[in-house]
């Protein structure tokens, strides 16, 4: 394990971010189409692949970036300034690589032998049972919220592993080609429509032994695997709402000079003190979210680069940092759209899409500020958290 962030990593990170920034205008042009189609245009996925986004957490030996949490955070944030859904799908694709890299060399060769520009989607929450059979496992069932399934070549199905020898099944992932599964169109939502998070069905799918991993027995193979799960999960999607809020602020500022405030004497809205105050406060709240999540990412990266171990209080703080970020981003968005006025909700205005997307993505279970605050508060007072399975 490396002892510190090396100059070469900093250079590689900057080069990657430059490539990502170069595709943001293209993703922005496609964002309305993604919202309408309820999936990303394939050209957006291809642009992300060409920029090196799909291989962000894939092993270097296969041509991946093998990045850290700060790199992920900054890439996801930048992508959200172009397209909320492209940003959200990035952790889905990279997170799947994160798990695949724990699997056998045979599996990794199977997935990445031709490079790491391979889209894989996956699930964290088990709901089905996989039964042990000669040579592997069989599984049937449905897996909802399959973000990115239309673009994935492989998917990781979460399931309880029932081998008939224990009363307590293991929890694992089964790597299955998407060609062996069926997608049902179930993704009808207010926001984040372009993620195409539909339901995946499998009917008596056979999964060979080498494509199954019991997470209770999984071993770290990348430095990134040293990051505690609670911190990893808190940071996983954290960049998306930050980038959305940044895009909303930029969009609103761009139209403000042309606006007046109707039924008042403010013929130029920029001259109104409450407009000035609200935009300053919104910018500050976005900065707070950005700074706090970067602090959490820096804590996580000490595990990656220095081999550090975060204690319970540090893990709780990182989780809470992300939760406080969400609270501030919601408040910032409210300030922005209130100053943009009713026209912000018109279909022609990209602000309405950004508003819907931030409102939707920050409702994700991993982003609940109250849960994060309770965890940290209990830890501060010497009590173990009882509201989460691990910290």
Helix content: 40-55%
- Count of DSSP H/I helices: 11
| SSE pattern | HHHHHEEEEEEEEHHHHHH
Q: Could you please say which CATH topology of the largest domain applies here? A: Butyryl-CoA Dehydrogenase, subunit A, domain 3
The parts where pLDDT drops under 50 for at least 5 residues are none
Question: Given the helix and strand composition, which structural class is it?
Answer: alpha+beta
Main sheet overview? 8 strands, mixed
Mean pLDDT, to the nearest integer, reads: 94
Question: How does the SSE layout of this entry go?
Answer:
Layout: H1 7-37, H2 42-51, H3 69-80, H4 84-100, H5 105-112, E1 120-122, E2 129-133, E3 136-146, E4 154-162, E5 170-177, E6 182-184, E7 198-208, E8 212-214, H6 229-236, H7 239-256, H8 273-306, H9 312-340, H10 350-361, H11 369-380
Helix pairs in contact: 1-2, 1-3, 3-4, 3-7, 6-9, 7-8, 7-9, 7-10, 8-9, 9-10, 9-11
Give me a quick take on this structure.
The chain is of the alpha+beta class. The chain has three domains: 7-112, Butyryl-Coa Dehydrogenase, subunit A, domain 1 (Orthogonal Bundle); 120-214, Butyryl-CoA Dehydrogenase, subunit A, domain 2; 227-380, Butyryl-CoA Dehydrogenase, subunit A, domain 3 (Up-down Bundle), CATH 1.20.140.10.
Task: Describe the protein.
This protein is α+β, with helices and mostly antiparallel strands. It folds into three domains: 7-112, Acyl-CoA dehydrogenase/oxidase, N-terminal domain (Butyryl-Coa Dehydrogenase, subunit A, domain 1); 120-214, Butyryl-CoA Dehydrogenase, subunit A, domain 2 (Beta Barrel); 227-380, Butyryl-CoA Dehydrogenase, subunit A, domain 3. The chain is 49% helix and 14% strand. It contains eleven helices and eight strands. Strands 1, 2, 3, 4, 5, 6, 7 and 8 form an eight-stranded mixed β-sheet that branches. A hairpin with a 7-residue loop joins β4 and β5. α1 runs parallel beside α3 and α9 (312-340) packs antiparallel against α10 (350-361). The protein is globular and about 80 Å long.
């Amino acid at each position: 394990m490396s002892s510190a962030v090396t100059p070469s990593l900093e250079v590689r990170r900057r080069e990657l971010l430059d490539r990502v920034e170069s595709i943001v205008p293209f993703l922005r042009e496609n964002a309305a189409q993604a919202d309408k189609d309820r999936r990303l245009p394939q050209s957006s996925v291809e642009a992300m692949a060409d920029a090196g986004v799909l291989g962000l957490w894939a092993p270097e030996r296969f041509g991946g970036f093998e990045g850290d949490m700060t790199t992920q955070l900054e890439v996801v944030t930048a992508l959200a300034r172009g397209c909320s859904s492209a940003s959200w799908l990035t952790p889905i694709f990279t997170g799947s690589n994160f798990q695949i890299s724990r699997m056998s060399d045979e599996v990794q060769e199977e997935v990445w032998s031709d490079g790491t520009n391979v889209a894989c989607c996956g699930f964290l929450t088990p709901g089905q049972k996989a039964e042990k059979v000669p040579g592997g496992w069989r599984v049937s069932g449905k897996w909802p919220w399959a973000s990115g399934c239309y673009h994935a070549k492989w998917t990781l199905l979460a399931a309880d592993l029932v081998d008939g020898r224990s009363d307590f099944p293991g929890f694992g992932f089964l790597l299955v080609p998407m060609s062996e599964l069926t997608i049902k169109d179930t993704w009808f939502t207010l926001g984040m429509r372009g993620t195409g998070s539909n339901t995946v069905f499998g009917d008596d799918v056979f999964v060979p032994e080498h494509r199954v991993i019991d997470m209770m027995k999984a071993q770290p193979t990348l430095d990134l695997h040293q990051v505690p799960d609670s911190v990893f999960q808190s940071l996983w999607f954290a960049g998306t709402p930050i980038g959305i809020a940044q895009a909303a602020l930029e969009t609103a500022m761009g139209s403000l000079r042309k606006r007046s405030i109707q039924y008042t004497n403010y013929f130029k809205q920029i001259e109104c003190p409450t407009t000035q105050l609200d935009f300053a406060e919104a910018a500050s709240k976005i900065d707070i979210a950005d700074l706090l999540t970067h602090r959490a990412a820096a804590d996580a990266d000490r595990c990656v680069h220095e081999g550090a171990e975060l204690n319970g209080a540090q893990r709780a703080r990182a989780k809470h940092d992300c939760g406080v970020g969400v609270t501030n981003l919601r408040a910032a968005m409210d300030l922005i759209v209130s100053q943009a006025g009713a026209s912000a909700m018109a279909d022609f205005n990209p602000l309405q899409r950004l508003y819907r997307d931030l409102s939707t993505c920050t409702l994700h279970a991993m982003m609940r500020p109250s849960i994060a605050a309770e965890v940290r508060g209990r830890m501060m007072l010497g009590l173990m958290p009882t509201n989460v399975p691990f910290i």
